[in-house]
Design a protein that fits this description.
Elements (H helix, E strand, L loop, with lengths): L4 E8 L2 E12 L6 E3 L1 H7 L5 E6 L5 E13 L2 E9 L7 E2 L1 H6 L2 E4 L4 E4 L6
Length: about 120
């Protein structure tokens, strides 16, 4: 499968004027969105929770977790994120993609809307 990045606009939910544009790697294998530590500090994002996750190498790591406003394709909403290490690659994970009802089009390297289904 091809990998690609998308531009997202992220902001502090408590102080929405604190915002920035960021390139995030689309990673359908990641559960959560991951933001580099310097971005979390720049936006002064709260990280009241902790989550343990498994890296692709099989190593378990524990990261701080919080909420961030994210804008994708002209829609903005709050989503959870993990605060990764400094200079790490930011990721958009499956939780955020599901919340936005977006799927991956790997051929055209873009995110596409999918029908929202209520059961």
């Amino acid at each position: 499968m091809s990998t690609f990045t998308v531009q997202a606009f992220i902001a502090n939910p408590e102080h929405p004027q604190r915002r920035l544009a960021i390139e995030l790697l689309v990673d359908t294998g990641a559960t959560y969105t991951l933001l580099p530590d310097e971005v979390v500090r720049h936006l002064d994002l709260a990280t009241p929770w902790q989550r343990t996750a498994m890296l692709a190498s099989g190593e378990d790591v524990t990261y701080a977790m919080g909420q961030v406003l994210i804008r994708l394709n002209a829609e903005e909403m709050a989503t959870v994120f993990l605060a990764g290490p400094a200079a790490c690659q930011g990721l958009i994970g499956a939780v955020t993609l599901e919340e936005f009802a977006l799927a991956v089009d790997p051929v055209h390297q873009r995110l596409v809307p999918i029908p929202r289904v209520l059961l």
